[in-house]
């Protein structure tokens, strides 16, 4: 009987521990203005400058234009942030039920208290939709402490 009681107690302890880990409060890092940008290098293409094309116009020089996903992050806390791991999630629908793609990003950018920074990831052939959002999954503070959230499951 004692072994059974110990097993039940261990199971209850593990259950309580897993609930408390999952119920972490969100960080004091506000995320807004998720964006998808197509052909971010068009303004740098010499063909655009010489021909007088406006920035962002399609080019013939770049076969695979670089795309970018980004979001605006504001440190609403009192501690400087050393790095942020975040996700840019692309949904198929406005209800955010069907995920098309999740881009994981680690940005090693210091964000001081009260400061905002646009963090981004560049790549080729990134998926896009009218329905997207960015969310924080990990914060490393300058004092060595860490806030850890959970990753999006697909």
Descriptive report:
This protein is globular. The chain is an alpha+beta fold. About 13% of the residues have low confidence. A 4-stranded antiparallel sheet has the order 4-3-6-7, with no helix packed on it. It has a 3-stranded antiparallel sheet with strand order 1-2-5, with no helix packed on it. The protein contains 2 helices and 7 strands, in the order αβαββββββ.
Q: Estimate the strand proportion.
A: 35-45%
The spatial strand order of the largest sheet comes to 4-3-6-7
Structural class: alpha+beta
Note the run of SSEs as H and E. HEHEEEEEE
N- and C-termini, Cα separation: 42 Å
Rg from Cα: 21 Å
Average per-residue pLDDT, rounded, comes to: 77
Please bin the fraction of helical residues. Answer: 10-25%
Summarize the main sheet.
Answer: 4 strands, antiparallel
- Low-pLDDT parts are 11-25, 59-63
How is the secondary structure organized here?
Blueprint: H1 2-22, E1 29-37, H2 46-51, E2 67-75, E3 81-91, E4 99-107, E5 116-123, E6 131-141, E7 146-148
Antiparallel strand pairs: 1-2, 2-5, 3-4, 3-6, 6-7
Features:
3-stranded antiparallel β-sheet; 154 residues; 4-stranded antiparallel β-sheet; single chain; alpha+beta
Question: What would a concise description of this structure say?
Answer:
By secondary structure, the protein is α+β, with helices and mostly antiparallel strands.
